[in-house]
Structure formats: structure tokens, C-alpha cells
């Protein structure tokens, strides 16, 4: 409870209010009572407290650099062993210098506790249109269409509106709620209920003339207890209720609603980041599949030419039936692979249509083989860039919301105070309903103190605490996953480029090997098996080289996604983009 120190202030304020009200003796009792209630309720509200723990962002383990970032000069240097290498120190002796170093390290650890730092999400940093670094107008157009028509982004936007409306609903609980309630009821009651104190008069008639009055005249009345058989009930009244937030339950609920709204905003930014990254990755996957299809079309023609050569040599007796069967098998195999690759491309094309919010049946993307080199992405950005990731911000805000709900569960143990007021008109005759004698009113506080709940309050509190612990674990797990994604992407950025350099050499050597095998086969120095083996090796090397080029684009997009988006509008340095003029194929693609 935060306001334990305010107890004296509350008492002093109440005494001041009562002293002020007692001086106004001329006020009516009704008005004076209302003034007392309003003053006392105001004191309770302004000097109230909030039970439950205040939110404090947890600390997370954040290394200062990336393991697979830029290469360091000491990257391959072996670590110093824990034990000394000198022969004068044995296993059972301790170096005094190492003891002093250990003591200093312990003191430093107490001052600066490890690598743990407070959570400080920066999802508000503008990411910008990061896909424009690829310098591809077609990709820019696809990303714009996805931003405007993707259904997942629209669902996330609707969630933001819903969460913001929840904040308004939580804020409305701080104000009195007033209802206008007219009603009409017709009752049918049992008569002659002696325990109900209702006295109804009944006239007494004379049967003979008395004192000059004719027979049948009223000579008196009698009374009996009971109800009329039927009764009309007309009511028109205003009913008002105002819950005083003495223990901070409403404030905690508002705090949780605000955190949920911020989490939904982070979820929207995460959906945008995911959709834009998915569009870019699917686009480059489609393009490198187009490159592979282009290569396979050329290789099919090569295999067809080889089959014709083998058939000519077989008919002239220079080749055997095994060579002919091998040539036919190679042609059938490459055609089968081509069909499978076309099927894969069609599925990727359908996925792009869904991301763009278009039916797959009407979406067609023309062939566009991948020729250019991917842009350079900085790999030496500080690890603080992960604070702009929307999923980390969402997890942190959800953690704050669950912490606020602990306060709500705590407040359920304390009495709730409601100010109720009622004013209206009540009558059994509608014609007399709005006359002043028919008015009725009720006002006063209503205190609800839980006595026995069968363990419900304790269970709710334990549930709120467990939800907070789960949110903390989820938050830290999200950060660990973010570092894993960045490191995996950095591995791809560095090693895929090295792998493609080796693969380029393999393609060139496999082509030379195929040329030599074909020359030997045409001169009759070898069988077709050499051509078959070298040709398959050459084709696989080309397809792998194309796939590596596409994977280099895809892994850069994965790195940008792992960073949380772009960095041009943050404190990070912008990427270095290669000049497209140095690559003629890239220049042709961008035109």
C-alpha cells in the first residue's frame, strides 16, 4: 500500500471538513447531509491509496556486441587458461595476484551487477520503408499493396481500436453512473394478511330508517387488515451510483487497460514488420526460382541435344544401348525437376497473393530471374537496436498489465465503498404520479466488506501473481529469441557469401569438366557415363549457386526483421549500398 504515510493527513482533512460544515447551521438537514457525503468522499478519493506492487521493469541479460558481427582481430586468439602456465605454480597453490584480481572482480560485480539492464523498449522509433534499400521498384509496389490490403494488418488495427476503447471503458469507472428508470407494474395480492400493517376502511349500511335517515344510509365505518386484490404501481426515478477508488482498484484497472492498449499498438507494428518481411522474402524466393527455371530450360535443351547425339552414335554403332538409356533418363529427370520447380513457384506466387490481400486465382506474377547482388547490411549495430523490436515492446507492456492486475486482486480484500442516490416519484395513481407528495428519495454510502469467499480472493491473487511471473518469463524468452534470430541471420550474412564464392569456383570447374567429357565422348574416347556424371554435377552446381544468391537476399531480410525494422531514423548508421552500375544485370533489372 503506497499511502501508509497519509493516515494522519486523512484524519486532519476529515476534521477540517466536519468543522466547516457544522458552522453552517442554517442549511437544511438534507442539503447538509449531501454536502458532508460529498466532502468526505472527496477526501477519501484524493487521499486514497493503491494496493499491490508498483510496476518495475525487470532486468534482462543484454550483451554489448554480436558473436557473428564484424570480424575482430582477436577473434581467433585462444582464451587464457584459468590456471597459470608457469611450472612454479602447482594445482594445490593459489597465486596471490589472482586472489586480488578475484576480490576486485567481486567488488565490481557488486557495483555493476553483470550484464543485466532495465527494460527500455523503443518500438516508437520509426522503422521507415526499409525495403527500399534493395533498390527494386517492383518490391516497393508489392510492399505498398500489402500495407493497404493485407488482412492481418487490418485485424491488428482493429485490435488497437478495441484496446483503446477498453481504456475509455476503464476511465468511465471513475465517474458516477446515473440511470433513468421508469416502470409500471400491476400487482395481484392475497387479501387478509394480518401480519401486514395495512388498515383499509369499509362502510356500514343501515337496514332500517334510523333518526330520520332512510334505509341503506351509511351510519358508520369499520376497518380490517389486508390488501386490495389488485394494485397499480407507477415509478419514475433516477438512480445514481459512484464507486470510490479508495484502494486504487480502478486506477490499477486503468493502468492495465493502458498497458494492453500499448501492447496492441506494438502488436500492430509487429504485424506490419512481419508482413513486409514475408512479402520481401517471398518475392526474392520467387525470383531465384525463376532463375533456376531459366537454367533448367537451357539444360533441357542441352539434354535434348545430347540425346540426339547419342541416338546418332547408337545408330552408327559407336555407342551402346546403355548410353542411349542414360541419355533418355537424364532428359526425363531434368523435365521432372522442372515440373516440381514450377509447382513450388506457383505456391510461392499464391502466398504473395494472400499477403497482398488478393485472391490467388486472379494473381499472376511475371518471370523475373534474380541477377543482381544483395545490398550490404551493417552487422556491427549495437545490441540496443533490439529495443525497437515490436514483439519485445509487446511482451513488456503485457508484463506491465499483468502486474497491475495483481493490485486489482489485492483490492478485492478491502471493502468497496459506493455512494448511492435515488430520487423519483411513486404512486398507484398515474394522475397523481408527478405531484410533490409522491416524491421519494434515498441517499447514502454502501460498504461491501468480504467476509467469506471460499478461497476465491486468494485464488484470484495467486492467479494474478502467476500470470505476472509467466509474463516476465515470456518477456525474457522473447529477448533470448531475438538474439538467437540476429545471430542466425548474421551467420547467414557472413557464411553464405563465403559459400557462394566457393560455389562460383565449383560452377566454373564443373563446366570445364563437362566440356572435356563431352569432347572425349564426341571423339569416341569415353562412354556417355562421363558426360552424364559431369553434366549432373554442373547442373547441380548452377542451381545451388542460384539458390545461394537468393538465400543471401532472404537472410538479409531476416536480419532486418530480427533488428526490428530499419535503422535510418534511429541512432544507428545507415547501410552501405553497392553501386548498381557495377553490375550490368542489376541495372537491367531495375529499369
Number of separate helices: 11
Total DSSP E strands: 8
Residue fraction in strands: 5-15%
Largest sheet: 4 strands, antiparallel
N- to C-terminal distance: 67 Å
Give helix and strand order, one letter per element, not per position: HHEHEHHEEEEHHHEEHHH
Q: Strand order within the widest sheet?
A: 3-6-7-8
CATH class group of the domain at 61-65 and 118-173 and 247-414 and 449-563? Mainly Alpha
CATH topology of the domain at 61-65 and 118-173 and 247-414 and 449-563, what is it called?
Answer: Outer membrane efflux proteins (OEP)
Helix content: 40-55%
Uncertain residue ranges: 1-7, 16-21, 23-32, 72-99, 101-106, 108-126, 568-591
Task: Please give the CATH architecture of the domain at 61-65 and 118-173 and 247-414 and 449-563.
Answer: Up-down Bundle
Return the average pLDDT rounded to an integer: 75
Identify the CATH homologous superfamily of the domain at 61-65 and 118-173 and 247-414 and 449-563. Answer: Outer membrane efflux proteins (OEP)
Radius of gyration in whole Å, from Cα?
Answer: 42 Å
Tell me the overall shape.
elongated
Q: Would you tell me the structural class of the helices and strands? A: alpha+beta
Quaternary status: single chain
Amino acid at each position: 500500500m503506497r499511502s501508509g504515510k497519509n493516515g494522519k493527513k486523512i484524519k486532519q482533512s476529515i476534521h477540517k471538513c466536519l468543522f466547516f460544515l457544522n458552522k453552517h447551521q442554517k442549511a437544511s438537514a438534507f442539503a447538509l447531509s449531501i454536502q458532508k457525503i460529498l466532502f468526505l468522499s472527496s477526501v477519501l478519493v484524493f487521499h486514497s491509496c493503491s494496493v499491490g506492487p508498483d510496476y518495475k521493469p525487470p532486468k534482462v541479460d543484454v550483451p554489448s556486441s554480436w558473436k557473428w558481427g564484424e570480424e575482430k582481430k582477436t577473434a581467433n586468439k585462444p582464451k587464457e587458461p584459468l590456471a597459470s602456465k608457469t611450472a612454479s605454480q602447482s594445482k594445490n597453490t593459489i597465486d596471490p595476484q589472482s586472489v586480488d584480481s578475484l576480490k576486485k572482480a567481486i567488488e565490481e560485480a557488486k557495483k555493476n551487477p553483470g550484464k543485466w539492464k532495465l527494460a527500455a523498449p523503443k518500438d516508437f522509433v520509426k522503422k521507415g520503408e526499409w525495403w527500399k534499400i534493395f533498390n527494386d521498384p517492383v518490391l516497393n509496389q508489392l510492399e505498398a499493396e500489402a500495407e493497404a490490403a493485407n488482412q492481418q494488418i487490418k485485424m491488428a488495427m482493429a485490435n488497437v481500436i478495441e484496446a483503446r476503447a477498453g481504456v475509455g471503458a476503464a476511465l468511465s469507472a471513475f465517474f458516477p453512473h446515473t440511470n433513468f428508470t421508469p416502470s409500471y407494474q400491476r400487482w395481484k395480492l392475497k387479501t387478509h394478511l394480518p401480519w401486514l400493517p395495512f388498515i383499509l376502511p369499509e362502510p356500514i349500511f343501515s337496514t332500517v330508517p334510523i333518526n330520520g335517515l332512510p334505509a341503506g344510509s351509511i351510519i358508520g365505518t369499520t376497518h380490517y387488515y389486508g390488501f386490495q386484490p389488485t394494485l397499480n404501481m407507477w415509478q419514475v426515478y433516477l438512480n445514481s451510483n459512484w464507486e470510490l477508488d479508495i484502494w486504487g482498484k480502478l486506477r490499477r484497472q486503468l493502468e492495465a487497460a493502458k498497458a494492453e492498449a500499448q501492447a496492441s499498438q506494438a502488436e500492430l507494428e509487429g504485424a506490419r514488420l512481419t508482413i513486409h518481411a514475408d512479402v520481401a522474402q517471398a518475392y526474392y524466393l520467387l525470383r531465384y526460382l525463376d532463375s533456376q527455371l531459366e537454367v533448367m530450360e537451357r539444360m533441357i535443351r542441352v539434354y535434348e541435344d545430347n540425346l540426339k547425339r547419342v541416338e546418332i552414335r547408337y545408330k552408327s554403332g559407336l555407342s551402346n544401348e546403355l548410353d542411349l538409356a542414360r541419355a533418355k533418363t537424364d532428359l526425363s529427370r531434368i523435365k521432372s525437376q522442372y515440373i516440381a520447380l514450377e509447382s513450388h513457384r506457383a505456391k510461392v506466387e499464391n502466398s504473395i497473393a494472400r499477403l497482398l490481400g488478393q485472391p490467388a486465382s486472379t494473381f499472376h506474377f511475371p518471370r523475373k530471374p534474380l541477377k543482381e547482388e544483395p545490398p550490404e547490411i551493417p552487422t556491427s549495430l549495437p545490441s540496443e537496436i533490439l529495443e525497437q523490436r515490436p514483439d519485445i515492446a509487446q511482451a513488456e507492456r503485457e508484463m506491465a498489465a499483468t502486474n497491475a492486475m495483481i493490485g486489482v486482486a489485492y483490492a478485492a480484500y478491502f471493502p468497496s465503498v459506493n455512494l448511492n442516490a435515488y430520487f423519483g416519484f411513486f404512486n398507484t395513481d398515474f394522475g397523481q404520479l408527478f405531484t410533490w407528495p409522491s416524491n421519494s428519495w434515498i441517499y447514502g454510502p454502501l460498504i461491501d466488506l468480504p467476509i467469506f469467499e471460499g478461497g476465491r480472493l486468494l485464488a484470484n491473487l495467486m492467479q494474478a501473481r502467476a500470470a505476472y511471473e509467466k509474463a516476465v518469463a515470456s518477456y525474457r524468452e522473447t529477448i533470448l529469441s531475438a538474439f538467437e534470430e540476429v545471430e542466425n541471420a548474421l551467420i547467414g550474412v557472413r557464411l553464405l557469401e563465403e559459400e557462394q564464392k566457393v560455389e562460383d569456383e565449383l560452377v566454373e570447374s564443373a563446366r570445364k569438366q563437362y566440356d572435356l567429357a563431352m569432347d572425349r565422348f564426341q571423339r569416341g574416347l569415353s562412354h556417355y557415363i562421363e558426360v552424364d556424371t559431369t553434366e549432373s554435377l554442373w547442373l547441380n552446381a548452377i542451381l545451388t549457386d542460384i539458390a545461394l544468391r537468393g538465400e543471401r537476399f532472404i537472410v538479409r531480410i531476416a536480419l532486418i526483421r530480427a533488428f526490428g525494422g530499419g535503422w535510418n531514423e534511429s541512432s544507428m548508421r545507415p547501410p552501405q549500398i553497392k553501386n548498381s552500375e557495377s553490375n550490368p544485370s542489376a541495372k537491367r533489372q531495375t529499369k
